[in-house]
Known about the structure:
By secondary structure, the chain is mostly helical. The chain has ten helices and no strands. It is globular. 25% of the residues are buried.
Amino acid sequence: MNKFSFNRFQKVVVRDFHNTLSLYGMSMLVMMLVPSAIWLIGLVFGLNYADADGTDLVMRHMVVIIMAYLAAAIAPLKIYNSCNLRGKGNYFAMLPATLGEKFCSMLLYCFIVSPLAVFCGAYLVDTLLTLLPFGHNKDFLWNEPQWLNSLGEEINFGLPQIVLIFATQIFSYSAVFMFANTIFKKHKFIFTVLWLMLIGYVVSIISIPILMHVDWSGSFMATIAKWVENTSPDKVLSIITWIGMLLNVLIAAVFSFFTYRRLKKMQY
């Protein structure tokens, strides 16, 4: 049974779908309804988030996107919580499928299904609230604010780039939490966040002194500054975007590999 079988993979996907509904469905629903909670708070307290420059749209977009990020991070901790636990982990280990098939299903639900479902659900909730004749939602989320329209005249940054950045960030976040799910046995989300904060703190302690001693007026930095000055904003933004996406893909690939290795060596 070492060879990948689409039929077995399909059965694992169906089983993971039922597990997602039972173990993660309520949490996903809560995240989908967060826009309605913010809308209700604004309605009750008479808050008006709308602004002429589109601040309201930006805030609502950020809420939907943050919920999708959160869904991607929590998905492995909810759906596959017991994969590294003695006794309970036997369920995952004894599934009639190869580790590759189970791992591909895990990637599917953590990277795509869960965040996409929450994103679409939260987007739909916001749209329904905008249809109401009362409340602070004046424009639909697909309407672009004025400042973004004016920026678009100078920089060509469209929907495909936004989707790619969004997707690769989702993959990297979820992969980190997938790996953490195989390390920690209790309070997995809190421990993962604390460890990430600790790592960020250590990196900042190391990097700040280094950056302070960098000769920013040197020939190398002068060459970069000259290149930026002589290059169109489109090209600069495109290069920065691609570097960011490649880093996200690299993080996702590395932590996915480590997760697979951890699951392969797991002792139940």
